[in-house]
């Protein structure tokens, strides 16, 4: 029984790690997409370009 409980805890930790990794990957993808979009010259505010 002890071995099964240890295995269950291991599976829970691995699943938690996988979920966190997936969330971090998705957040990173969105962050880089936003950076690429707002880094373009034609996206900035027109009044900001005059400064």
Give the gist of this structure.
With 51 residues, this protein is mostly helical.
> Kindly state the mean pLDDT as a whole number?
83
Pairing-aware structural class of the strands and helices? mainly alpha
Cα-atom radius of gyration: 22 Å
Tally of individual helices: 2
Question: What count of structural domains?
Answer: 1
Portion of residues within helices: over 70%
Shape: rod-shaped
Largest sheet: none
**Total E-strand runs:** 0
Secondary-structure element pattern, one letter each: HH
What does this structure look like?
With 51 residues, the protein is mainly α. The protein has one domain (2-50). It is 82% helix and 0% strand. The longest helix has 37 residues, at 2-38. The protein starts with a helix and ends with a helix. The model has no long low-confidence stretch (mean pLDDT 83).
Features:
Ferritin-like; 0% strand; 51 residues; mainly alpha
Task: Please render the helix and strand layout as text.
Elements: H1 2-38, H2 46-50
């Amino acid at each position: 029984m002890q071995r099964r409980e240890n295995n269950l805890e291991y599976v829970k930790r691995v699943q938690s790690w996988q979920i966190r990794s997936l969330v971090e990957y998705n957040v990173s993808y969105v962050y880089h997409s936003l950076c690429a979009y707002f880094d373009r010259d034609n996206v900035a505010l027109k009044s900001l370009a005059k400064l």
